[in-house]
Design brief:
Length: 317
């Protein structure tokens, strides 16, 4: 998948252009329905399907005190969109100038950038332009003016209610991974680049791969049985999510995800790791010594090994 970062880049794509527009946080079943409609339209009519999203989340700029925690950081969202078979992703910076565009000015900029713009597909309740002043009725009027077809995708229902990022966030916050997986159409996971930690766990005999989680919607703090995917292998492991109260006494220290991969030897620093949460084992504990922490980690690892079963075979095996 090719990622574009300006409207002008649309002019270089084979037309007609079929846009699927949304923030797509989590790329849940509802988002997938919007993107697949645009892909299907492009397949039947010719041209290129493009997912258009924004960075940062509009609410983060306009009302930062109300901004939601994200289900997927930008690299994670990009990987999930790529897995849907998209050939192109357009990520537009959401800044004050962009936020000030009227609905008409925003759509006009898209129509003028594409050669030509054939369709725009959105969710049924999509709002756009300054103050979210535009809706699907507005889009229909602008479609007549700028000669493209608007398409609204009906909500995807699960248990009688629309699938939404809000529902996924609630399930994750409650540690309800089965519900989150049903809404997402995939297991809930966190993806990020492995960073250097204090290496204390290595000294205790349980080296960990550490992922930053700032700004993400997280499950409850604690220890989890996990599966983590490296470049070519899905590995079983045990992970701690939280602030490490045994070794960190500052309650404001940033939260971190630390995953110990069973029987793994190697250097993961700088590599991308995806950690799938399988089951909560216990809450975070403040223990009296490093020896007590080492013994507790050993018990956690043994419990996770039993729960997860045999190591998955390497990809391609």
């Amino acid at each position: 998948m090719i990622t574009l970062h300006s409207l002008g880049a649309l002019a270089r794509l084979p037309g007609p252009i079929h846009l699927a527009i949304g923030f797509f946080d989590g790329v849940h079943l509802g988002h997938q329905a919007v993107i697949r409609r645009a892909q299907a339209t492009a397949a039947s009519e010719g041209g290129t399907a493009v997912a258009l999203t924004f960075d940062p989340h509009p609410v983060q700029l306009l009302r930062p005190e109300s901004a939601p925690a994200l289900l997927t950081a930008p690299p994670h969202k990009s990987r999930l969109l790529d897995a849907l078979g998209l050939s192109h992703l357009l990520v537009l910076p959401f800044d004050q100038a962009f936020a000030a565009l009227s609905p008409e000015a925003f759509i006009a900029s898209l129509a003028h950038a594409c050669h030509p713009l054939a369709s725009i597909t959105v969710g049924h309740n999509w709002g756009f332009g300054k103050g979210r002043g535009g809706n699907f009725h507005t889009l229909t009027e602008l479609g007549t003016r700028f000669h493209f077809r608007p398409q609204a995708v009906a909500p995807v229902l699960l248990d009688g209610s629309p699938v939404s990022s809000t529902r996924v966030r609630q399930a994750v916050a409650e540690g309800d991974f089965p519900t989150a997986a049903r809404l997402l159409g995939r297991p809930y996971s966190i993806l990020g680049e492995v960073i250097t930690g204090r290496q204390l766990a290595r000294k205790l005999g349980f080296p960990t791969a550490n992922l930053p989680v700032d700004g993400l919607q997280l499950p409850p703090f604690g220890v989890y049985a996990v599966r983590a995917s490296t470049t070519h292998h899905l590995r079983n492991g045990v992970a701690n999510l939280g602030r490490r109260p045994t070794v960190e006494h500052n309650p404001l220290v940033p939260c971190q995800l630390e995953a110990h991969l069973f029987d793994f030897q190697g250097d993961l620093y700088g590599q991308t790791l995806e950690v799938v949460f399988v089951q909560h084992l216990r809450g975070e504990l403040r223990l009296n010594s490093l020896e007590a922490l080492q013994a507790q980690i050993a018990r956690d690892a043994a419990q996770a090994r039993t729960l997860l079963g045999p190591e998955p075979p390497p990809s391609g095996a």
